[in-house]
Amino acid sequence: MDRTIRVLVAKPGLDGHDRGAKVIARALRDAGMEVIYTGLQQTPQMIVEAALQEDVDVIGLSILSGAHMTLLPKVSQLLREQQMDDVLVVAGGIISDDDAATLKNVHGIAQVFGPGTNTNDIVAYIRANAGVARD
Amino acid sequence: MHIPDLLPRLLQGDRRALARAISLAEQGGSRARDLLAGAYPHAGRAHTIGITGPPGAGKSTLVNALALELRRQKRTVGIVAVDPTSPFSGGAVLGDRIRMQPLGGDAGVFIRSMGSRGRLGGLSRATADAIALIDAAGFDVVLIETVGAGQGEVDIARTAQTTIVVEVPGMGDDVQSIKAGVLEIADIFVVNKADREGADKTLRQLRSMLHLGGPPEDGWEPPVLASVASNGQGIPEIIADADRHAEHLRGAGFADAHARTAAEGELRAAVQELVVERLRGAAWDALVAKIAARQGDPYSAAEELINSL
Ligand code: B12
Ligand SMILES: Nc1nc2c(ncn2[C@@H]2O[C@H](COP(=O)(O)OP(=O)(O)O)[C@@H](O)[C@H]2O)c(=O)[nH]1
Ligand SMILES: [Mg+2]
Q: What pTM was estimated for this model as a whole?
């Protein structure tokens, strides 16, 4: 049976840039997904707790503040602790290529999308990878 | 997560099992029915409170404030917040949690957002199931926020024991703007944003309008209360009246009548779903084609299908 893909879109840390997150939320909605938008200033704990309660397939983190190397690994670590490794984690915003590589190789972030990414590509990526690890 | 493990874990209050169980209920099908069949006998203990009213009235903010107060009183709170699903894409942006951030990090609170998924009436098909699952998981109170389309959200009155209708000051200058249907479903009226001009007038208008209706048949006179959800003003009074309403339902034996109405609605929905699921197949498809080609009509076709069961 076809299941609606559920995505938590969150803004970790003290970052007020919310345009990108809203653009992504709308694009995913228009692609038929359910987007839970939690707003600004989310701690990694709040993000993982919301993801658990909402039983999402995907967590999408939007971060333009520069604090991604501390906040994003923390989200992955908490997910592991909760045995929620089956949740796909993607990120977007201002993240250098080097940092993106480390986040993907070491910290369990599946994919990083920078400025100017076409939202169709993001939709396609999520469709192909969401819920794959879920039983 | 293993489905057979879900029920025992859920009954012990395991949050992840509860979350997964609600997803299963939304998905529907036989696995969902098995799970719900196991959970239903354990539900029925929680006080279920619906919150309805127009978009922007402050429903989510009010739910947050009510939950904070209930937690102060050491009661655990489950929350179901329904937002509209786009009829074009089938997707939705569910944003009610934004107003509920102060509840984060409290193990005595569980919040779930749901898309209406094509259902009109302010709730989704699986909302009643989600409430039952949260109830079975042991929460004391379940707060349900409806879509808030403003009109025709009568489903909530059938589903929740206590229905709170939220209005705001100066919604149009007369009470005409308050829909007749909404008046009938309210057990409690709340004029939120009482920090705004015109709150007294709206309170007065609502009260006099209720008096026009004469004494209520069931002996419950809906109170009209003022609140400022954003700073907690008037919230303990709303909880007190909600408790008083639950007491009223129990005392007068109305709780049974309410439970029967709710049960009837749930049974009807379950029968519809199951019957349609059983009947879908080659014969169904053939009849659809016939009706589309105007070589048959849906009524005779329905009878033919039902007789074949
Ligand atoms: C607009 C803007 C603002 C606006 C924000 C308005 C708002 N409500 O969003 C305002 C003026 C308020 C602002 C303020 C500041 N800003 Co500013 N701002 C920008 C600017 C010019 C554009 C950002 C934007 O909205 N882009 C449009 C959106 C659609 O793009 P996007 O967010 O990148 O999203 C795309 C992808 O990244 C990706 N994506 C993003 N999120 C997600 C999430 C998921 C799940 C996925 C899959 C994909 C994804 O997909 C999107 C579509 O392609 C950028 C520069 C730039 N070119 O990026 C600076 C920039 C981000 N700001 C910057 C700074 C420093 C600030 C301030 C600190 C400035 C100051 N000293 O006061 C403040 C901080 C405000 C705060 N509270 O956080 C720096 C950040 C530097 C850094 N991280 O190292 C930047 C990079 C400018 C620069 N070159 O210095 N800013
Ligand atoms: N002034 C004032 N604003 C409020 C009050 N309650 C909620 N709001 C604001 O009204 C807006 C809509 O609130 P929300 O809870 O999202 O409404 P909903 O659409 O009915 O769920 C938000 O900006 C709230 O901060 C209140 O009592 N007074
Ligand atoms: Mg709301």
A: 0.91
